[in-house]
Amino acid sequence: MKKKSSATIYDVAHRVGVSLATVSRVVNGNSNVRDSTKQKVLEAIEELGYHPNAVARGLASKKTTTIGVVMPDVTDVYYSELARGIDDVANMYHYDVLLTNTDEDPVRETMAVNNLASKQVDGIIFMGNDLEREVLNTISSANAPVVLAGSVEGEGRLASVNIDYIEAVKEATEAVLKNGHKRVAIVTGPITHAINGLYRLAGYKKALEANQIEYDDTLLFTTHQDYNAGLQVAQKILAAGATAVVTYDDEVAVGIMNYIRDQGKRIPEDFEIITSNDTKLTIMTRPQVTSIGQPKYDIGAVAMRMLTKLMNNEVLDESQVKLPHTLERRGTTIN
Questions:
Q1: Using CB atoms within 10 A as the burial measure, which of 88, 165, 266, 315 is most buried?
Q2: ∠ CA 165-291-323 to the nearest 5 degrees?
Q3: Which residues contact 87 (CB under 8 A, 6 or more apart)?
Q4: Measured in Å, how far apart are the chain's first and last C-alpha atoms?
Q5: pLDDT computed for residue 58 by the predictor
């Protein structure tokens, strides 16, 4: 039988000889339908090629079964791994995902949240290195719960899933300090971003203090998150007399490593490198890059599970979740 190109719920009800309410119950998984009737409805849906209209269903239930995900860079391996965890759990709970790319531009982030809210998404997951005041205000005014994944805001007002960035950077910095380095550089994004100024830099300073080394701001460098930025900052790192570096991004780490090797220095004998995201880039290089290990898939998955609870008006057992990190020692450090 030829399928109707735009079958409606009315067509299905007419085919089976039941009410619209009965078809709706079957479509929405309501168990209050006789098995024999349910089977006939499902067969009619298949024969007619009927696809329930999510918007119409959302108007009736005040839910669209859609969530929005705000990403700073859809091509970045770190964020894409978080997104996999989000998407898998969203599918498990029968939510569709709308993905938006912002290039970490506050104006685009604000537009993205507004656009998602206008589409009446049931919830939003936000990823990014900073939440500027205007973005926070937009999130607050959105009529939907929001969970941060791999992102922080200084006051802890929003539910979030992260690792303990302070402790992770402290551990990474101490790892190279224990190898005898006295001048260890740190590379982050803008210090005005909470995740850098309040967390990463704080962890670095704690490591220095614990090892009785005075903080030197000439060893602090900020860059964009890409390979070329690593090449450019590496020259400054060497000029500052550093013999080791802890950086926040894997592409940056690879750029630093390649530049330093091009200067005839050996890694890790002459210079040690630790990065932070532990994406597949860290094992594709030679030598492989030592990194803070993050449970990226789990960060996304847990964030999505928290969002499902908030969308159902459930109380979270814990709103600021910190998942365990590791230090994956590879070829860019001595041990």
A1: 165
A2: 40
A3: 97, 300
A4: 68
A5: 56
Contact 325, 319 (CB under 8 A): no
10 Å Cβ neighbour count for 263? 11
CB 73 within 8 A of CB 101: yes
Token readout for 18 is 């039941």
CA-nearest of 136, 80, 67, 74 to 106 is 136
The number of beta carbons lying within 10 Å of the beta carbon of residue 220 is: 17
Q: 15 — alpha (psi -120 to 50), left (phi > 0) or beta?
A: alpha
Distance from chain centroid for Cα 327: 20
Cα 310 to chain centroid distance, Å, stands at 18
The pLDDT value recorded for residue 57 is: 55
Rounded Cα gap, residues 53 and 109, in angstroms: 29
Question: What is the C-alpha to C-alpha distance for residues 88 and 150, in angstroms, rounded to an integer?
Answer: 17
Token readout for 205 is 């300073």
Give the residue from 289, 274, 292 showing the smallest Cα distance to 331. Answer: 289
pLDDT along the chain (335 residues), means of 10: 63 88 77 87 86 58 82 91 94 92 89 88 89 82 90 84 97 97 97 92 98 97 95 98 98 98 97 97 97 96 96 92 97 94
Burial per residue of 126-156, b for 16 or more beta-carbon CB atoms within 10 angstroms, e otherwise: bbbbbbbeebbebbeebebbbbbbbbbbeee
Which phi and psi (to 5°) does residue 247 adopt? Answer: -125, 160
DSSP characters for 139-200?
Answer: HHHSSS-EEEES---TT--SEEEEE-HHHHHHHHHHHHHTTT-S-EEEEES-TTSHIIIIII
Residue found by looking up tokens 């894409």 in the block: 80
| Spatial CB neighbours of 207, under 8 Å, sequence gap ≥ 6 | 169, 170, 171, 173, 174, 177
Domains and CATH numbers, the chain: 9-52 (1.10.260.40), 64-163+296-323 (3.40.50.2300), 165-294 (3.40.50.2300)
Residue 129 carries which DSSP code? Answer: S
